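To whoever picks this up:

The nightly regression suite flagged site-specific DNA-methyltransferase (adenine-specific) as changed. Nothing in the input moved, so I suspect the structure step. Input below, exactly as stored in the fixture:
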Amino acid sequence: MAEPILKWAGGKRQLLDELYARFPSAFGRYHEPFVGGGAVFFDLEPARATVNDANPRLVNFYEQVRDRPDELIARLTSLDDPQSDPDPDLPHAEETARDREVDSYYYQQRARFNRRPYEGEFDPLEEAALLLYLNRTCYNGLYRENADGGFNVPIGRYADPDWVRRDRIRRASDLLADAEIRNADFAYVLDVAEPGDLVYFDPPYEPMSATANFNEYSASGFDREDQRRLLDVAGELDEAGVWVVLSNSGVMYDAYAEAGFRVDREDATRAINSDADGRDAVDEIVATNVPPAERREAGQRELPDF
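Regenerated output under the current build:
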């Protein structure tokens, strides 16, 4: 079985059973317009799929995993412990582009990652390796970008971090070989989904409160107008005979219920929180147009195709 390679905000490992209980017993092609860490995609292992994300660095990562897994593993193996001294043969061994002191290998690689789109020839393999390295060695595995698109998470504290992830990369590469990877707006799915296909939407959540606003895992963010557009897209897919399953925060319950979707509340523990004691269950919804009689059986792990 393939497994997620990255730790990603909003991951759905805790909701898999609840999501699968609302999937149709059979469907054509699978589409995931907000793939993120890919917890559902990798666990489901669909035979035919499109996966998409608005974050171009994440999309490049999956492309490199699919196309160059052995080269990616070799590049990751060459990286050093995050607490080590900076490599004097690499850029930013002493200070970042903003003249901040670099005191460890981690912060050197973070500075390189943030300057890669602007300095020299772009190397997509190095970009992918640095993304995974930082994800596995940063504080709490959190991916966060500032308004300029710069990765700004500090170093984590790990006794023996594993940033190579060779087995997961190889299994994911095999699965992604049969998937179409996109870097587009989520509405692309209106052009590719056919009647009988399944679309699973896992957007950045609408905040539960004014302070619960961790939905900006990329600099572009996802605002209320995007939430309205997503609701419209889900409605168009429903009218076109496409199966839809969607997760979001509890504040979106009424909007999807009023649009005619079957909506249930679920509790899920957030895996990413600055305070480990604060990883409490949060109110989420799962909305779907799949009637109960059309859903897969409880505990079913493989979905038959048309």
